[in-house]
Amino acid sequence: MSTVRIIPSSLCGCVCAPPSKSAAHRALICSFLAGGGSVEPIADSDDMRATQGVTAALENGGTTLNCLESGSTLRFMLPVAAALGREVTFVGEGRLPQRPLGEYLNLLPKFGVNVESDGGLPLSISGRLRNGSYEVSGDVSSQYITGLLLALSCVEGDSAIILKTPLQSKPYVDMTVKVMADYGVNVRETEFGYLIHGGQTFGKLDYTVEGDWSQAAFFLVAGAISGEVTVSGLDMQSTQGDKAIVQILKDFGADVSVDGDSVTVKKSCLKACNVNAENIPDLVPIIAVLAANAEGTTVISGAERLRYKESDRLESVVTNLRALGADAEELEDGIKITGSKLHAAELNSFNDHRIVMAFSVAALAADGEVKIDGCESINKSYPSFFEDYNMIGGKADVL
User: Fold this and answer.
1) Model pTM score
2) What is the distance between the alpha carbons of residues 326 and 237, in angstroms, rounded to a whole number?
3) Which residues are known catalytic residues?
4) Helix or strand (DSSP H, E) at 377
5) Residue 100: its pLDDT value, please?
6) What are the start-end ranges of the H helices in the chain?
């Protein structure tokens, strides 16, 4: 296990946003269903290797599909494999075998798929997915909706996804619909959910992956609390929900400017404001760091699903904020944070990439050295994070 030692510093400079992990997952699957076409650029991360590995295994007749720790890979590819009539077993690593799959365990057997599972992984399927009306909870994970959209476009006959509860993280589904449309496959949004025509054909094309707003957020917040940071390679018209970080920074009083595909944030006098994270769950750790550096009390709500990520992120964030000396309280569906002076501390990564990156940003404003264990977990999504961090003035030493 690696530990990163961080000495407080000021980040000043420009970072190019890495390619969007969310868009790349979807494009890789669409390319697989199309039977060809490139998808570039792709980060050399564990999550990307998971989706590439699973699609390659299916292409080559593999029967064991290792999703590593990628919830997106698992929830997207499970119904896709079922739609193709494959008899396979899904396995995973880390916390992935324990992450919820209840929607699929309830739904798939009703539509022609035999499922063998004790509630998580390993999970084996056989049979072939049929079309029909799929009633799905919208407040558990938008990943179920994405997986079904991809799969049901491949089966014979039309299907409907009927949302039993309001859809949370809708921008992620909007991204799915957009990427599928890029490949020539159309989905119609309705007042009750989505309509999908079966038997559609994914077109072969060379796909360019846009920059990742989720990863850009770490450096944009770093600019707000420690210096002046520009992140380039961002699409201001993106369907990514996490582009909301621009408005959130403005709401906190940060000095934000946009120029073409670049966003610049300068160190600012920050004021607390409340944030509903229903559609932006991945931003919660870095928003919490922003709030800890703002005057007043911030309440982050609508984030109960974060308990089922790589770690229980509500608990992980509060534990590390308190270790830094911040006034933080865990709520049922979020976090309450009062701005505080942050101190030197030894922090736990909880084997969670977003916790490591968020608290590496928090360390910039501490009054002494901060250590974070398990920092290799950034390999899940952003392996070059510390290279970019140090390139613009950070003082992070991976031990």
Assistant:
1) 0.95
2) 35
3) 282
4) none
5) 86
6) 21-34, 46-59, 71-83, 102-107, 142-152, 170-182, 213-226, 245-251, 284-292, 313-323, 353-362, 385-391
